[in-house]
Design goal:
With about 140 residues, the chain is α+β, with helices and mostly antiparallel strands. The chain has five helices and five strands; from the N terminus they run ααββααβββα. The chain has a single domain, classed as Dynein light chain 2a, cytoplasmic (Beta-Lactamase, 2-Layer Sandwich), CATH 3.30.450. Strands 2-1-5-4-3 form a five-stranded antiparallel beta sheet, with helices on both faces.
């Protein structure tokens, strides 16, 4: 099965990643993949219908979290102080708790501009959420 993923196209890999996140992450109500270089939500699955404008805003919000102006400035200061010349970003995972939900954003290992997003019920075991999402992300390694 892993061989099939490696030979399939990027679009198929993204859809497979979204489906695996949706089924493997505990208490998951939605999953998606955001391409921050284009500002697009590439694929998503959800148990509820959401207004299209909310889904469109998800990509922008993800970009702000990981690569907003102030975040990039902080990264640049640390890179300069540490003498680093890498294009890699420091923020790899971000957990956000809202009133009723837990949102986990995880950068893909290979493509730093691609972020997996998982939304779960607030009652989720956060340790299990991180473990499962990290496992799936590593398996797909886009």
């Amino acid at each position: 099965m892993a061989t099939k993923r490696m030979t399939s196209g990027f679009s198929d890999q993204v859809m497979g990643l979204v489906k695996s996140l949706r089924t493997d992450a505990p208490d998951c109500v939605a999953s998606g993949v955001v391409d921050m270089s284009t500002g697009m939500l590439l694929s998503y699955e959800t148990v509820e219908n959401h207004p299209p404008e909310v889904l469109d805003l998800l990509a922008g919000a993800t970009l702000d979290l990981f690569q907003g102006r102030t975040v990039v400035m902080i990264e640049d200061v640390f890179k300069e102080r540490r003498g680093m010349a890498s294009d890699n970003h420091f923020f790899q995972e971000i957990l956000v708790n809202s009133e009723n939900l837990t949102h986990l954003f995880v950068r893909m290992n290979e493509q730093q501009d691609v972020v997996a997003v998982v939304v779960c019920r607030k009652s989720v075991n956060v340790g299990m959420l991180f473990a499962q999402v990290r496992r799936v992300v590593k398996e797909y390694s886009l």
